[in-house]
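Hello again,

I reread your note about wanting to compare the complex against the isolated chains. To keep things tidy I'm splitting this into two emails, and this first one only covers the full assembly. Below are the input lines as submitted, including protein chains and any nucleic acid or small-molecule components. They are followed by the predicted structure of everything together. The single-chain runs will come separately.
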Amino acid sequence: MVIAIDGPAASGKSSVARRLARKIGFDYVNSGAMYRAVTWELLREGIDPARSESVEAALARISLDCGFSGDGEFFIRVNSELPEVELRESSVNSQVSEVSTIPAVRRLIGSRLHAVAAGRRVVMEGRDIGTAVFPETPHKFYLDASPEVRRRRRAAEGHNDSIEKRDRIDSTRRHAPLSVAPDANVIDTSHLTLEGVVEAISGILRQRGIGQE
Ligand code: CDP
Ligand code: CDP
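Full-complex prediction:
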């Protein structure tokens, strides 16, 4: 079973998905970190993300795994490295959306996401989980917040991330763009606390018999 949480940068997906998963006893999967891990590896190899043929050739050599460690944490291994803080580097922030437009990248990560969710109950967050990766799940949530609130949240975290540019590329790309699934519950988080958002989602799930103690 997959609970899909999509939305633009700093709408609160990661914080909410992690807390929700803990609350209802599901595993938490961060699909954005997969795109970041591939981008980080490409940059490490000196590959220009704008050259999709070079990226495709590199993908054939890259080994990408993900899963859950003993304590239930989602991990990503790329060419035997386990990048963590590296995934938030500014070079990754500035290139990840470009890399994410490439269909071969989306296919590779999409297949890993299906494999990691097989036979499990997961809360998975990203941009296209409810629209493209698991369109059949009835549990879809789309988080949003005003651009100003989102910019402030990122600044408060000390990131000088050009989220407008990423949002623009993510929303206008040809394959699996960021968009609201017609059957998604849309939640504007601008004036909600994290707990408030988690409460709103878990309330809806509870009515469906999910997450009841
Ligand atoms: O945490 P934040 O919302 O800033 O970004 P993220 O979830 O780590 O995702 C980083 C980037 O990966 C996004 O800006 C998208 O370009 C890409 N992405 C995607 O294309 N599809 C997904 N399901 C998740 C992320
Ligand atoms: O994953 P995504 O980029 O959508 O957002 P996030 O990394 O979960 O949230 C970005 C920042 O906004 C974090 O520091 C959250 O604590 C904060 N936030 C908040 O203060 N209130 C909310 N309702 C949602 C997020």
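For quick reference: The chain has a mean pLDDT of 96.

B.
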